[in-house]
Structure formats: C-alpha cells, structure tokens
Amino acid sequence: MAIAFIIPTGVGIATIVFLFLRFSRFVYLYLHPSSLSQYHYGEEPWALVTGASNGIGKFLAAELARNGFNVILHGRNPSKLENVVSTLRQQFSQCEFRTAVLDASSATHRQISDLVSSFDDIHLTILVNNVAGGRIVQPLTNTSPDQVDSSLNCNARFPAQLTRSLLPRFAASRDRSLILNIGSAANTFAPYASVYGGSKACNQAMSSCLNVEMVAENLASKIEILCISVAAVTEAAQNTAPVSLFTPAASTMAKASLARVGCGRAIVVGYFWHAVQLAFLGWLPMSVTTSIVAPIMRERWEEEKRKK
Fold first, then answer.
1. pTM of the prediction?
2. How far is it, in rounded angstroms, from Cα 102 to Cα 12?
3. Positive/negative CA dihedral, 108, 113, 116, 120
4. Do the Cβ atoms of 46 and 124 come closer than 8 Å?
5. Are 200 and 155 in contact, with CB atoms under 8 Å apart?
6. Angle at CA 51, nearest 5°, toward 50 and 54?
7. Mind listing the pLDDT tens digit for each residue in 68-101?
8. Is the dihedral of CA 200, 257, 129, 171 positive or negative?
C-alpha cells in the first residue's frame, strides 16, 4: 500500500514541478531585459528596417532611434517614407536617417545587390525584415496569380535575398549583428489568408534553420537570429480596430519586439498577451480551435465583400 501511494504522489509532484518550470520559463521570457544595446557599438551604428513607411515598421524605426541607432527606412512609396523621416528627425534630432525606395514584391537580384552596396559607407549592425504584403482576406480561389506572386515575393523572397546579401558583411564584422525577422501568427491557422500565412511562415522557418546554421558555422556568437511572431495589431495591415488587451497598438508591438532581443530563442511571440492567447488556442484540440477561428475569419471575408 505504501509503495502504491508513493508512486502516484511522486508522479504528481514531478508533474507540478514540470508545469511550474514551464510557467516560470514562460514568464521570465517577458521579464528578461533586452540586449539591444549590445548592437549599439562603434561610431554611428545603423539599423535597416524594411517596410518602414507605416505600421509596425514605422514604430520599429522610431524605437531604434530612441535607443540611439541611426536608421535606414525602406519602403516602396518615397513620399510616405519622407513624411515618416521628417517626423523622426523632429523627434530624434541626434540621429541620422536615410530612405531606401524599392518595391519588395518585384525587386530583382541586381536591385537588392545595389541596395546592399549603398550601405558600404555606414556601420550597419541590425537588419529588421519587417516588410509584408498581400494581407488580403479572401479565399485562395479569389486570389489572382499576380497577387500570389506578389505576396510570395514580398514576404518570403525579398527577406531571404536581402538576408543572403547582408550575411557576409555581418559575418566579417568583428562585433555582433542582429537579424530580426517579423513573422505572423497567421502561419498556423488563418483561413482566407492562406498565401499570406504561408509566405510569412517562411520567415519563421528561415529563422529557425538559419539560427542552427550560425551554430554550425561558428557564427552564433556574432550573429543573433530572432523571429517575432505577431498576432492582431491595430494601426497596421489596414486594421483600425480599437486598442485592446489582445490587440495592441503598432507602437506597443514594436517595443515588445525589440524587448525580446537576446531572449535566447530563435522564434518567440513578441507580445505577452499574444503569447497567452496563442498558448490557449494551442492547448485546445484542433477541431475546437478551427470551430473558433473559422467563423471569425468567414465574417471578415463577408465584411470585405460588403465593402466592394
């Protein structure tokens, strides 16, 4: 009887300890201080933010400037970029700003190479692959061939080619560099956004694989690879919903993303309440999660049709 009692008790204690450790690790991830400052070294360190003319990218540029970095803002609309830069110069007069105009959905290898060459005169320590496109809520059958290609190019091909072009520069540097990829929770279950979700999943997969590649190449101590998974955010992707606990402002999301730098993981949900939300959905059976998500996204598709 004593042995029969001890075994389940021991299993129960081990389970409690395991769950406590997992919970502690989860909470610590969002209490751990950012190590962004380690990339601010040398004379005039620079950061490149793609897709910086609005949304999260615009606020990432602002947060980097707030932390003392000079910033290159990439986008495809020169007037939008200049408006953002004008505002940033007023807020952060001690920092320098540049713009890089290039359409990520159609950029050629030569154009990307020329873009990277334009950074030869600066000390670039951070690359933020934030650019995103094709966030259209509609069935795959309603998506045109050009829309499919544009989304894949913008969300997968352009970040991969830009990262490939900048890696040798980062590897040759004597100090550390950061590659921050902005992913999306849509890569898991997002009906009516299958191409967008699938193409953004490339960021997550590339981050995971590249992180291990840096270890294999003995570059992990020099180059940090981090992918931030993002769920619903207002002031971004045409989302004008009011700010709420689970739908933060783009500025809040930008701060949360940079706060995760140095967390020791290759992929992380950037915003705490997004992590809670996704963890809850992850614990549910897939059939239950589907029954929750499917009607919500169906209603969004119906709203899009009414707008047309």
1. 0.92
2. 58
3. negative
4. yes
5. yes
6. 140
7. 999 999 999 999 999 999 999 999 999 999 999 9
8. negative
